[in-house]
Specification:
Number of helices: 15
Strand content: under 5%
Shape: elongated
Radius of gyration: 26 Å
CATH class of the largest domain: Mainly Alpha
Structural class: mainly alpha
Largest sheet: 2 strands, antiparallel
CATH topology of the largest domain: Cytochrome Bc1 Complex, Chain D, domain 2
Strand order of the largest sheet: 1-2
Helix content: 25-40%
Distance between the termini: 78 Å
Length: about 375
């Protein structure tokens, strides 16, 4: 063991990697003199961002086009198929960890990539790096190179996540604020039912896969399971939504590692308001936009599990609400919200409930949603 430690002192890990790079560079360029260059720690110092990235000590070919196609850590950075990408993202100006995370000041692989104790931003996995676009780009939804975020946004809206979660003061408070999730310490999460390195990204991904396994609740303490429905997401969908959740936190200003104003890319002009053919069509759009679909399902067909709810332990469908409620009664329920009754009176409260929407919907939107709900009744199409 002492021999290993001594060898590491004589030839640390980073030096060995750099020597391998030098030999490979000599093979690629045909310049044998490069094979015998002495190893040294290289770094990009960015005082404005309070960062010092030493990633280029091992990733020495990152800015050398001749090393394109070489294996890691020797390869040059790809251009991602975006003309001018590398020119606009100069390593000497923004470093490496702004986009890839990791501990930039470290020169040993485990410490640099993480996770390691007291370092909460380990290297982002390949499928998650698109999240970092949100650090500078205030609207990545139409950004070339951030197609994964665009797919994730479409999935986020399809599942109606905003109907339960708050996001930058928009949405509801059934679930936690999404913009704060990734910025938390791993110590704030329970990894009891998760295998693997205890990172926030892993917790988020595992929670998307099987929310009730990760947060089963504690019935003896009166704590219900997570209200998050299990949507049966694929591995790719889990990766997309994990990247998006990470991006929400990265949109926030980081005082520890600030981004100079010259790197901020504004959101641009808002999208034009759509024109609807009818009130019911507008209501369908509102139903989707504000996340009603998250609990009530597509076209209000229901089916989302809600433990210990008095009506079949699931959120009821809305396809026949016009049979039992007048339009004014529906508006009142939407405005004020409703807590479901319990199937077992001495059991835990159902984790999902209908929140109040009076401060979230305009009168026009409320009218439109009710018209849409009435249009769902297959036996009364004339009421659409």
């Amino acid at each position: 063991m002492s021999g290993v430690l001594l060898w590491r002192e004589i030839l640390p890990e980073w030096a060995g990697v750099q020597m391998q790079y030098n030999r490979r560079l000599a093979e690629v360029t045909g310049d044998r003199s490069k094979a015998w260059a002495l190893p040294k720690i290289n770094q990009i110092h960015l005082p404005e961002m309070k960062r010092t990235d030493r990633c280029i000590t091992c990733h020495a070919g990152i800015n050398n086009p001749k090393m394109a196609g070489q294996p890691q850590p020797f390869a040059s950075h790809p251009d991602l198929g975006i003309p001018g990408f590398l020119q606009k993202h100069s390593f000497n100006e923004i470093g490496c960890t702004v986009c890839h995370h990791g501990q930039g000041s470290a020169v040993e692989k485990k410490a640099a990539h993480g996770p390691v104790k007291h370092w909460h931003e380990p290297l982002l996995e390949k499928g998650l790096t698109a999240a970092a676009c949100a650090t500078c780009h205030k609207n990545a939804r139409n950004l070339a190179g951030a197609e994964r975020l665009q797919k994730a946004w479409a999935l986020f809206e399809e599942k109606g996540c905003i109907g339960c979660h708050n996001l930058h003061s928009k949405g509801m408070l059934i679930g936690p604020e999404l913009a704060e999730t990734y910025s938390k310490s791993p110590d704030q999460f329970d990894f009891k039912y998760i295998q693997g390195e205890e990172t926030v990204a892993l917790w988020i991904a595992e929670h998307f896969k099987d929310p009730q396994r990760v947060v089963p609740g504690y019935p003896k303490l009166g704590v219900p399971e997570t209200p998050m429905p299990n949507y049966g997401l694929t591995e790719e969908e889990v990766s997309l939504l994990t990247a998006l959740t990470i991006s929400f936190s990265l949109e926030e200003e980081n005082e520890e590692h600030p981004i100079p104003a010259r790197f901020h890319v504004p959101a641009g002009l808002p999208e034009p308001q759509p024109v609807y053919a009818s009130k019911a069509e507008q209501g369908a759009a509102v139903f989707q936009k504000v996340g009603c679909i998250g609990c009530h399902g597509p076209q209000g067909r229901g089916g989302i599990v809600n433990r210990n709810m008095d009506i079949g332990e699931e959120v009821p469908p809305l396809t026949h609400v016009s049979d039992g409620y007048s339009k004014e009664e529906l508006k009142e329920i939407i405005r004020d919200g409703r807590y479901p009754a319990r199937a077992q009176k001495d059991g835990l409260a159902p984790p999902l409930w209908m929140p109040s929407w009076k401060d979230k919907l305009t009168l026009e939107e409320l009218d439109a949603v009710v018209e849409y709900l009435y249009s769902l009744n297959p036996e009364k199409p004339e009421q659409a």
